[in-house]
Amino acid sequence: MKDGRQTQHKAWLQALLSLLVPGLGQAVGGAISRGFYIFLTEAVLSGLAVFAAAQRPRYPDYGLSFHAYLQLLGASAALVIFLLALYWLARRVSLRSEFAKTAAGPTFAALSALIAVLVAPRMVDTVLAPEEQKKLFALTALFTAMVVAAIWAWNIYDAAQVRGKAHAPSLTPFYLLLIVGIITLGARIVQINPDKAIREYKDTGVILSRIVWPWKVAFDYKASQLVAEAKVQAPCPPGATPPPVNQPQEGKPWVVVTPTCGELSKRDTKGKLTFGTQLTIRGGGFQPGKKVHILWENPIGNAFTPRGVGPTEIVVGPDGTFSTQLYIPDVTIPSMAQGAQIHTLRVVQRGTAKFTGKLSKAMKLALEKMLESIMMGLMATAAGILLSVPLSFLAARNLMHNIHTTTEGFVGGVLGLVGGAYAGKRLADVLTPLVGGLEKAPVLTFTIYVVLVLGLAIGAYRLLSRALAQAGERLHPTLSLSIGILGMALIGGGVGYALGIGYAHGILGITRGAEAAQAMAHSSGMFGAALGAALAAFWAGRLGANGKIPIGQFIYAAVRLLLNIGRSIEPLIWAIMGVIWVGPGAFAGFIALTIHSVAALGKLYSEAIESIDPGPIEALQATGATRLQTIVYAVVPQVLPPFTAFTLYRWDINVRMSTIIGLVGGGGIGFLLIQWIHQFQYEQAGLAVWLITITVATLDFISANIREKMV
Amino acid sequence: MLVVEHLTKVYEDGTIALKDVNFTVEDGEFLVIIGLSGSGKSTLLRCINRLIQPTEGRILWNGVDITQANDAEMRRIRREIGMIFQHFNLVERSSVLTNVLTGRLGYLPSWWSLVNFFPQSEKRRAMQALERVGIADKAHNRADALSGGQKQRVGIARALMQDPKIILADEPVASLDPVLAHSILGYLEKLNQEHDITVLCSLHYLDLVQRYATKVIGLRDGRVVYEGTRENIRNITDEEFKHIYGQEAQRLSVGG
């Protein structure tokens, strides 16, 4: 009995603590992490609620005061407690009936929602002053406040039940409330607004429909038209010889203009028009019942519809004639064109446009750019395969983790690498001018550099690492240890110096300015060198003579890091860098997609390698096969199917990406699409969207099919 | 002659797999290693061709210390040591012929593999090896199309490609039907007797051991707890048996 009472007291204490600080009661009751998460949830949710409920994107100055929010919270808590009390009462009353007991939950939920909706606006009116009300999205604020309050209430109940970590009630109500809270807040922060979507559609539906069904602009149309012209001279100086007056003609359209010489209308700076000479226009030989258009062509051949000087669209009479009157329009004459000029009045009657069956210019352009996109995706995939396959082997843990070298071998290798690379560079410096240098033959020059630097570096690496490793084995341990320590100190010093310089420019340069960094670079480098040398020598000493360095794991970690960086930067961002590098166009897109493909494929490939059966590798090693032979005959046959599947998958992604990489200047159809959108040519943009959709869907289908057959 | 002296292997997680193991294998012997799973049999075999790097001790192969050999020396030593495995360790997607040819890689220049090149003479040698184990007709099948017994014969053919002086067999019949066990061990015995290839083999079933071994060592918890000749093992006492396999062990026969 005494025990029971103690438990009772403890429950009350825990409930009280949780009433004051959410989660505290649970923590005291022994469920520390539970209490912590409850507290964290309440804190984050309230914070987000104050931010999100009050923020108005257009008026960032608006903000709901925390005080006002607390009032709202209190009111909500009252409402929640009232509803809970109601629920409790309902349960009490309906305890006898099984049906009522099961129905109580849903009924209560529905009733609560109804009450919340009915009472909420009144509550906000009561709690908040009108000027505070202006500052908040009432429903969001109310809902989140209610969620916070409900979790608070639940937390008190929960605290009373908690007896240590093992004995704690279900968390389901908490999760449910949390989901409601997050959805409410998320909808506000993302500004999900169904009202807007429905309201705006009224105005934008027409444009959208043009994008959805744009096929009219995919084809060329031929419009037959009837044309008649008459010459008019303006201005009309005395003594000029005006053009002859036309005569009506049988069987073809004609127009007669009188007079054929007159003054231009003039528009002053305020836009007010002073009429010039009025022309009488008669015409015939046109199709009856349809409109003719009057155009004015200035002396240099630009035609336009005259504005404000008379009617320009006239319906032709039943006999095929019409007549009208028009002032000579105001025409801007270039200042160097002096004296009388001959203008042309043109009457045009357009027939119905006829479908020619030929593709329009826009469609041809879109197709051409679509092809460019597909090719970009293909080329990037091909380049991605070439580069990522070797990398993937370096990023496969099962192949790399047991590659070790001795300290002496490592020293020899690094010295060989650096020395060989330097020698290669010097050699290339001498050789490349013979082929024309970087300006005349950039690719050849670059290739010579790469081949010589890499070739000599790797050659010297193998030579020196072997020589030193063997020497290390043969020599007296003390001697080989001192070679190891000295060599490692040298390497560590070099790396430390580079890091020190980098620190000066990269870190000190930010806080103290470039000049101070420049001044400090040397001392910083020397400090780094000393530190690096000491650390490396210490490490070499600890490893001892012929100590093992897990060089394979270093390479593995470095390659993995590179791949992860390459993959976490999106292709669109790589494309922006590509555009800066080589200018806008498909090449920039190709670079972007290639980099991302290498990183993504490298990861996928290396994971495929890691999951192979190690048995054949073991078997081939046992036959005396070299590492290369083992990879070719034990690893490659095993990874071929997954490699193919991943490559197809990547190809799919690359073509998809290549269609939008043009949005940031990466070439292909995306470039065209964004241009058309900016020019409000929505039909043409719709064409591009359609082509992209068709291409992507087709490729999706094909690659899924092939993959299915492969696996 | 293979001499193992004070061989100890401690894995990185601290497991002691072998503890001061000493024994000698004369040329032409059929040495069988017995012991429970986890007693260190596989580790011992893999230390001999250094698939596993021993922690301490020496392994002298005709006077050369295998544990100190560098990469180039190791390649020469390994190609004299054939190995066959419990799970055959074939490349399942490659042809039987290719699998057998890979046994010859220790003799071939590394870069040939880049263009997947094997000379005709090696292909003939591979066919001969397959004939010796009786499955030349399967040469162009994929390895995953074979039965377990056939796979192990490919494994033997692959080892034969090495012109081995010694064959390490890591429980070569443990994944096979008992009937097939005799067939596979029969091949090994033939190689042992007719071609004078030393065999080091780990086995589970005592009657197989009694039938094929010329010398037996028993491992328990990484230590040699039994050493005997063919005669000794045929007359093994219950006491000795329990010393190797533990008190609860029962003798079991595969028949035949």
Number of helices of chain A: 23
Let me know the average pLDDT of chain A: 84
Which strand order do you get reading across the main beta sheet of chain B? 6-7-8-3-9-10
State the major sheet of chain B: 6 strands, mixed
Distance between the termini of chain A: 69 Å
Alpha carbon gap, first and last residue of chain B:
32 Å
Shape summary of chain A: flat
Kindly state the percentage of residues in helix of chain B. Answer: 25-40%
Which two chains share the most extensive interface?
A: A-B, 24 and 41 residues
- Our estimate of the beta-strand percent of chain A is 5-15%
CATH level-4 homologous superfamily of the largest domain in chain B:
P-loop containing nucleotide triphosphate hydrolases
Walkthrough of the structure:
The complex is a heterodimer of chains A (711) and B (256). Chain A contains 23 helices and twelve strands. Chain A has helices at 2-20, 24-28, 32-54, 66-93, 98-127, 130-133, 138-161, 172-189, 194-212, 361-394, 397-400, 407-435, 437-440, 442-474, 477-512, 514-543, 551-568, 571-582, 586-610, 615-622, 627-660, 669-678, 682-710, and strands at 219-234, 254-258, 266-267, 273-274, 278-284, 291-297, 303-304, 313-315, 322-327, 341-359, 405-406, 548-549. In chain A, strand 3 and strand 4 form a beta hairpin. Chain A is flat and about 115 Å long. The model of chain A is unreliable at 57-62 (pLDDT under 50). Chain B has 256 residues and is of the alpha/beta class. Chain B folds into two domains: 1-80 and 165-256, Rossmann fold (3-Layer(aba) Sandwich), CATH 3.40.50; 90-108 and 118-163. Chain B has helices at 41-48, 71-78, 96-101, 120-132, 148-160, 178-194, 206-212, 230-234, 238-245; strands at 2-10, 16-25, 30-34, 56-61, 64-65, 81-84, 166-169, 198-202, 215-220, 223-229. The mean pLDDT of chain B is 89. Classes of the chains: A alpha+beta (711), B alpha/beta (256). The A-B interface holds A 469-470, 473, 613, 615-616, 618-626, 628-629, 632-634, 637-638, 640-641 and B 49, 51, 68, 70, 74-79, 81-83, 85, 87-94, 98, 102-108, 110-111, 113-114, 116, 155, 158-159, 161-162, 168.
